[in-house]
UniProtKB/TrEMBL annotation:
Membrane-spanning residues: none
GO molecular function, one term: ATP binding
Protein name per its UniProtKB record: Protein-serine/threonine kinase
Lineage: Eukaryota, Metazoa, Chordata, Craniata, Vertebrata
Compartments in which it is found: Mitochondrion matrix
Entry's family note: Belongs to the PDK/BCKDK protein kinase family.
Region (Disordered): 96-117
Record's GO cellular component terms: mitochondrial matrix
Length: 284
């Protein structure tokens, strides 16, 4: 990143970049077939994007020097540290109390205490939270479309192309917002060899993928062995390599016929029974 990066440069970048990304995906939503656009769930998703664009445009001409826009970082004059008994370390040890080491500055850095976030940060968090249910709501819209109009190969191809771009756009927007909003972290380093393996990854993406894999494996296992007294185990192997980590899941759900392989990654295809609309829950 830039050596001159600060709250103001982050603000200047996001208030220009986010409207562009939101506008581009809104334009693509409008290019969907009319039958898809008329479904209640897709209209709801569309309204979320419109509101988020309006929220971010409020800051287009806002002055970053205004304390209510970004919040400010106070630099209080802290009292000198107390005298320590001989034999005690100047640096406090972290023993399960994350507050012990806070307030101590790194060498060359002014000690500072963050104020409450400004209006811009609050708006980013609101936008991010508003879009939390975009994926299941858009999936509900696809179900509503199929229930009303059935399968149309041409429309299905257009929807497939759109959803690929739509979900990638959503990921990029959420990554941008998450990089510029406060993120909780643990100040205690994991320095013990008995600790579980740690990797750098977006948690929500990993949880979503593993949830889908476990769900599919469990359903296939139950359906294939519904008359058996015991269900075979689902086995998961985690292998840490030099540059990556691999997760392999194995079940005895009878696999997928070769003729259906090409359909597995279509948003319009599922082997699960169609959920009842209006049940109040997201389709699984």
């Amino acid at each position: 990143g830039s050596s001159n990066a600060c709250e103001k440069t982050s603000f200047a970048f996001l208030r220009q970049e986010l409207p562009v990304r939101l506008s581009n995906i809104m334009k693509e939503i409008n290019l969907l077939p009319d039958r898809v656009l008329r479904t209640p769930s897709v209209q709801l998703v569309q309204s979320w994007y419109v509101q988020s664009l309006l929220d971010i445009m409020e800051f287009h001409d806002r002055d970053p020097e205004d304390q209510t826009t970004l919040g400010q970082l106070r630099h209080p004059k802290l009292p000198p540290p107390p005298e320590l008994h001989p034999g005690f370390s100047q640096r406090p040890q972290l023993l399960g109390n994350p507050g012990l080491d806070r307030g101590r500055a790194r060498p060359g850095c002014p000690q500072r205490r963050p104020c409450p976030p400004g209006r811009f940060t609050n708006a980013l968090v609101t936008i991010r939270n508003r879009h939390n249910d975009v994926v299941p709501t858009m999936a509900q819209g696809v179900i509503e479309y199929k229930e009303a109009y059935g399968d149309d190969p041409v429309s299905n191809q257009n929807i497939q192309y759109f959803l690929d771009r739509f979900y990638l756009s959503r990921i990029s927007i959420r990554m941008l917002i998450n990089q510029h909003t406060p993120t909780p972290f643990s100040p205690t380093p994991a320095s013990h060899s008995e600790q579980p393996v740690s990797i750098v990854y977006v948690p929500s993406h990993l949880y979503h993928m593993l949830f889908e894999l476990f769900k599919n494996a469990m359903r296939a296992t139950v359906e294939s062995h519904e008359n058996s007294p015991r269900l075979p185990a689902i086995r998961v192997m985690v292998a840490l390599g030099q540059e990556d980590l691999s997760i392999r899941m194995s079940d005895r759900g009878m696999g997928v016929p070769l003729r259906k392989i090409e359909r597995l990654f279509s948003y319009m295809y599922s082997t699960a029974p169609t959920p009842q609309l209006g049940s109040g829950g997201a389709p699984l």
